[in-house]
Every structure is written in structure tokens, then in C-alpha cells.
Design brief:
Blueprint: H1 8-13, E1 15-17, H2 18-22, H3 31-41, E2 47-49, H4 54-61, H5 68-71, E3 74-77, E4 82-85, E5 88-89, H6 95-99, H7 101-117, E6 128-131, E7 134-137, H8 146-159, H9 161-172
Parallel strand pairs: 1-2, 2-3
Antiparallel strand pairs: 3-4, 4-5, 6-7
Length: 179
């Protein structure tokens, strides 16, 4: 994997996006990146934010011997909905608990039907993933390879699959206040 220097805007903010740390989603941080972060942490508190759940982020940044919470002062999984400070979890709430089981089931049923009816180049499974503070929807499926994700991103930019889908969800479920 190619190593890219950390952009100055991220060093200044000291809150790093997981995609920047790993160069691309689903990949691991390089030893050089982890060393850079170790040195930066000697000068200030550091943190990261990413969309995946904590266990996936731990796979990408941590190790069996060193959990990601030991490498960062602040860890924000699920785009900040699950957070850790100094290795300890901060208060969090469940998406289902907030929304309610009946509304959640209605939302999931709609999403799965919508995705099933999409005519897109590939579908690879795990189209909807529940996380503590959110759900992750992937029209091609979370099981798609990195190469398939790259190709789908190009297709999506042209055909606006996700943009259209989000618009439909916002309209149909406006009463839920989802973002």
C-alpha cells in the first residue's frame, strides 16, 4: 500500500478521519502512519473519527495486543455516535432504542425492498448493517471488494443511486428526523 503524508489540515486539527489514516476504507494503517501518530501524541491529544463500528476500527488501527483506544486519546466510531475518551466509553444511546422497534422495522423493510429492486452492476451481500448508534446501508453490499467499491463509486457518481435513495428516504421517513 502506498504511504501518503498526513495533510497539514489534519495535523492542525488533531482529529483525524479514519480514511486518511488508512489511505482507503477497509485497509489497515501503515506502520509509518502509526509511528507518525505516536510522535504527534507526544505533543498533543489526538483522536480519530470513522463511520465503522469500534471493532472494525480496532482491526484497522489497533492490534490484538494494543487496542485502538490505547493509541488515541479520543476515538469516535460510527461517525461519533459511539465514543471513547482516554480508553473509556462515553455515554451512548441505541439507534433502535431512540427510534423504537416498530419504526425501525418499517425503515429496514423499506430499505431492503428498495435495494433488492435496484438494477446496479454488482450486489455482494450485507446491504444493511445495524450499529449501536446508526445503520449503514450499502446498495452494492458491505461484502464487495475494494475494487468493486471503486467501480461502484464511479457508477454511483454518474447515476446518483445513493443521492436518489437518500432523497427518497428523507421524504418517506421525514417524521423520523434522520440525517
Amino acid at each position: 500500500m502506498a504511504h501518503y503524508p498526513l495533510p497539514a489540515k489534519y495535523v492542525q486539527s488533531k482529529l483525524l478521519e479514519l480514511a486518511v489514516l488508512t489511505n482507503f476504507y477497509l485497509q489497515h494503517a501503515t506502520p509509518e502512519m502509526l509511528n507518525l501518530l505516536h510522535e504527534l501524541r507526544k505533543q498533543c491529544a489526538i483522536g480519530y473519527v470513522g463511520g465503522s463500528d469500534y471493532s472494525k476500527q480496532n482491526e484497522q488501527l489497533g492490534s490484538a495486543d494494543t487496542p485502538v483506544t490505547a493509541l488515541f486519546d479520543f476515538c469516535f466510531a460510527e461517525n461519533g455516535l459511539t465514543a471513547y475518551k482516554s480508553g473509556l466509553p462515553l455515554a451512548s444511546d441505541s439507534f433502535i432504542k431512540w427510534l423504537g422497534e416498530d419504526k425501525y422495522k418499517e425503515l429496514v423493510k423499506f430499505i431492503l425492498h428498495y435495494v433488492a429492486d435496484l438494477d446496479i452492476p454488482v450486489k455482494r451481500g450485507t446491504f444493511l448493517e445495524f450499529r449501536n448508534g446508526m445503520i449503514n446501508v450499502s446498495p452494492i453490499g458491505r461484502n464487495a471488494t475494494i475494487e468493486e467499491r471503486i467501480e461502484y463509486q464511479k457508477y454511483d457518481l454518474e447515476h446518483k443511486i445513493r443521492e436518489t435513495f437518500v432523497g427518497i428516504l428523507r421524504e418517506k421517513f421525514a417524521d423520523l428526523g434522520l440525517t
